[in-house]
Design a protein that fits this description.
Strand order of the largest sheet: 1-3-2-4-6-5-10-11-9-7-8
Largest sheet: 11 strands, mixed
CATH class of one domain: Alpha Beta
Shape: globular
Structural class: alpha/beta
Strand content: 5-15%
Number of strands: 11
Radius of gyration: 21 Å
CATH topology of one domain: Amidase signature (AS) enzymes
Helix content: 25-40%
CATH architecture of one domain: Alpha-Beta Complex
Order of helices and strands: HHEHEHEHEHEEHHEHEHHHHEHHEEH
Bound molecules: glutamine
């Protein structure tokens, strides 16, 4: 299945129709998703109807944009009007959204077709998609391995070329890590770049929606479509988008000649990094160096606290955000002798183990007597982590790091040890705490596992144009990246 830019060109010259694109998605899902299990829901009839409307608009010269009629998969925590939004949780099973998230509304305004509901870790808590209450999504490169998480359904669907692109969300790495595991591009925008209205909140000060695509250009197209001020989200920045697509189209390998690329020491000597990941990242560094980039050693000294700080702040916010799911206002209710007993029973039956663990941790760190020791201190260290990035960006334009210490792991390998699972986010989490932007771009296939390995570029807040341009230039240096066999 082609990506966004290619589909737009084919629609323009009449080589394909929206109906044709949608039939491909339906056929791909029928052929492959029985094994991959990326989609929780896909309403074929609805897609056909929307495609027919798009084709009619285009025939009448009234296409909403050059992308009118292109399907985009949606992670199950980003609401689409009239569709279920379960966040892969039993507590929200069969809950239908009465409204569109701003990101989906903006896609629709350009004629993109929101497509299905993509699997995820329950409430976006996890790194493997194994925490979904409904199904385990497989990695299209090796179905005995996880696709990563929490946006594992989005990554697997795009990686397997079931859909041209998808939306994911990233609180501590949930777009970038699964993108790396499935051999695709994943962008975590600056906090506030994309409205969170209609994104079911996990940790409100960290969550961002972003694109998951097969190319950097497609990531720019989707970011351009979903960004911008929104009066429904007071944390969404009141500023016009830069020309992300233009920046990507202007990219060239010559760009490296004027680029200072920082390598944070703490990201290269991390414990537990596999040899093949290290080799792939070293090779990426060599490539950009040979293309003329100036390599600058930098330090982000508070990185070692990032995972601990994240699991205090994210769980604290989650415990507050998830308090609303009580079986009374939304979702599955367990009847019991009185209201409190019903709360206990509904939440007990509705949430999975990982979600309960986080609610307990979050409630604990916010409780009187512990608030200062944990939550307040974590907020202070968060500031230090942000200042680390600010210092580093005085010495370089962009940072280059690994995305994850390992390639996609096997099912069950880490799911019995939550701490080990948490530690797999060491390279992605700091940047959510700092609020700036980062992108994962496929760099190589692992020398031992033959699994995809992504490289992460990190830019200062609101420097997405520079980030995307650099990522595109890297893509040009790298050359074509394969799709998984049979996709
Ligand atoms: N893996 C991290 C967690 O479990 C990040 C998840 C995310 O970004 N939503 O919290």
């Amino acid at each position: 299945m082609m990506g966004i830019a290619e589909a737009a060109a084919a629609l323009k010259n009449g080589a394909i129709t929206s109906a044709g694109l949608v039939e491909q998605v339906i056929a791909n899902v029928a052929a492959q998703d029985g094994v991959i299990k990326a989609f929780l829901k896909l309403d074929a009839e609805k897609l056909r109807k929307l495609a027919a409307e798009s084709d009619a608009r285009r025939a009448a010269g009234k296409a909403l944009s050059e992308y009118d009629g292109i399907p985009v998969g949606i992670k199950d925590c980003i609401v689409t009007e009239g569709e279920t939004c379960a966040c892969a949780s039993k507590i929200l099973e069969n809950v239908v959204s009465p409204y569109d998230s701003t990101a989906v509304a903006k896609l629709k305004a350009m004629g993109f077709i929101p497509t299905g509901r993509l699997n995820m870790d329950e409430f976006a808590m996890g790194s493997s998609c194994e925490n979904s209450a409904f199904q385990k999504t497989a990695n299209p490169w090796d179905v005995s391995r996880v696709p990563g998480g929490s946006s594992g359904g989005s990554a697997a669907a795009v990686g397997a070329r079931l859909v041209p692109a998808a939306l994911g969300s990233d609180t501590g790495g949930s777009i970038r890590q699964p993108a790396s595991f499935c051999g695709i591009v994943g962008l975590k925008p600056t906090y506030g770049r994309v409205s969170r209205y209609g994104l079911v909140a996990f940790a409100s000060s960290l969550d961002q929606i972003g694109p998951m695509t097969t190319s950097v250009e497609d990531a720019a197209i989707i970011l351009q479509a979903i960004t911008g001020e929104d009066k429904m989200d007071s944390t969404c920045l009141p500023m016009a988008a830069d020309d992300f697509v233009g920046a990507v189209r202007a990219a060239s390998v010559e760009d490296f000649k004027s680029l200072k690329v920082g390598l944070p020491a703490e990201y290269f000597n991390a414990e537990g990094m596999s040899k093949e990941v290290k080799a792939a990242i070293d090779k990426a560094v060599e490539m950009i160096k040979a293309a003329g980039a100036e390599i600058v050693p930098v330090s982000l000294p508070h990185t070692k606290y990032a995972v601990a700080v994240y699991y205090i702040i994210a769980t604290a916010e989650a415990s507050a955000n998830l308090a609303r799911f009580d079986g009374i206002r939304y979702g599955a209710r367990q009847e019991a002798k009185d209201l409190v007993a019903s709360y206990f029973a509904s939440r007990g039956a509705g949430f999975g183990d990982e979600v309960k663990r986080r609610i307990l941790l979050g409630t604990y760190v916010l409780s009187s007597g512990y608030y200062d020791a944990y939550y307040l201190r974590a907020q202070k260290v968060r500031t230090l982590i942000r200042q680390d990035f600010e210092e580093a960006f005085k010495k370089c334009d962009i940072l280059l790091t690994p995305v994850a210490p390992n390639v996609a792991f096997k099912f069950g390998e880490k799911s019995t040890n939550p701490l080990e699972m948490y530690l797999s986010d060491i390279f992605t989490i700091a940047l959510n705490l700092a609020g700036n932007c980062g992108i994962s771009v496929p760099a190589a296939l692992g020398s031992e596992s033959s699994m995809p390995i992504g490289v992460q570029f990190i830019a200062p807040a609101l420097a997405e144009a520079k980030l995307l341009k650099t990522a595109r230039a890297f893509e040009m240096l790298r050359g074509d990246f394969p799709a998984p066999a049979g996709c």
